[in-house]
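Task: sequence design from structure.
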């Protein structure tokens, strides 16, 4: 994307899906205020092209609040007590006074790593098991801290069961729970993989969460504790196109590699989307399965299949599954963070 075609104001205004704007009135007010700020627009333009995402600016501000910045910390600590426009004005005033707060973090990447997506992934894996896929290797592209490498360790809509529970609203289709395929290797690919034992990485991932939803932070902290008892995962640093062959070489032939990503290919260049599709389809023709949750308009290079069902809500993410030897197929829709799902597996 050339600078002349980059409309930072529009990026800020469109940063939240309509349902998220309703649920997050303070962040909605903040992205609107950022869209009107010449300083905020310029900062977003300074980020490298694949990270020109308002969520990077939001995370940078939240990061400094978490670290105790004298002006930002009180605002974020009491965010749900403040009137939305009051919160937004105060945060933008701080940004405009000290733009270096954000500028110093522009080298980072937005790595929300929302575990809610594992609820949808579990439903997909359950369906695959019913089709005879009993043993898999799970490869998570854009893995961040690897929270979505453990769909078999989360409870789904069952808080009474103990452990980590993921709540998801079912808008359609069969969300049957039951035994998943046995997961052998768990492999995460990321340009900048995060380490749950690294304090700096943990703070950054917390900053990527939305402060109006403290329950997400509480769940993240619960997962960090639980992960210490979960199977170790392999993390590979590099771009998906360049290292997917290395990842697959670690997978024995006694299980099916399932390559998964969600809101990752949207950050690829158009050329890299095409390269990724060609590379992964090469492996699908021989041994792998491909599962992704991406917004169709942002991944045109993947040539997503035509939907066979209408999206139930604005801003929905398409669920696409490509079974071994087949072609990518539409399997339904989900919220970008897995808050709801509408399955329509063929």
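Answer:
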């Amino acid at each position: 994307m050339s600078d002349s075609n980059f409309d930072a104001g529009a990026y800020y205004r469109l940063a939240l899906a309509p349902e998220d704007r309703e649920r997050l009135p303070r962040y909605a007010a903040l992205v609107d205020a950022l869209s009107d700020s010449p300083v905020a627009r310029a900062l977003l333009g300074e980020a490298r092209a694949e990270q020109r995402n308002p969520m990077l600016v939001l995370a940078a501000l939240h990061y400094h609040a978490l670290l105790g910045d004298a002006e930002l910390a009180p605002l974020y600590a009491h965010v749900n007590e403040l009137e939305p426009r009051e919160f937004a004005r105060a945060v933008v005033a701080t940004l405009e006074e000290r733009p270096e707060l954000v500028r110093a973090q522009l080298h980072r990447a937005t790595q929300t790593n929302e575990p809610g997506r594992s609820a949808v992934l579990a439903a997909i894996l359950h369906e695959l098991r019913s089709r005879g896929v009993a043993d898999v290797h799970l490869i998570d592209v854009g893995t961040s801290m690897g929270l979505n490498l453990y769909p078999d360790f989360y409870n789904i809509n069952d808080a009474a069961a103990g452990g980590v529970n993921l709540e998801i609203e079912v808008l359609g289709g069969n969300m049957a729970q039951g035994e998943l395929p046995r997961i052998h290797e768990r492999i995460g690919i990321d340009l900048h993989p995060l380490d749950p034992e690294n304090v700096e990485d943990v703070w950054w991932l917390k900053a990527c969460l939305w402060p109006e939803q403290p329950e997400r932070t509480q769940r993240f902290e619960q997962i960090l504790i639980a992960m210490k008892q979960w199977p170790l995962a392999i993390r590979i640093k590099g771009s998906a196109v360049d290292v997917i062959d290395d990842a697959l070489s670690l997978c024995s032939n006694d299980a099916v590699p399932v390559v998964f990503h969600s809101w990752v290919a949207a950050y690829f260049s158009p050329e890299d989307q095409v390269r990724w599709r060609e590379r992964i389809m090469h492996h699908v023709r021989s041994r792998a399965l491909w599962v992704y949750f991406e917004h169709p308009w942002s991944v045109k290079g993947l040539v997503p299949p035509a939907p066979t069902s209408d999206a139930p809500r604005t801003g929905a993410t398409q669920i696409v599954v490509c079974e071994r030897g087949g072609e990518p197929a539409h399997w339904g829709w989900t919220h970008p963070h897995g808050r709801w799902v509408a399955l329509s597996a063929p």
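Residues 43 and 103 are 7 Å apart (CA to CA).
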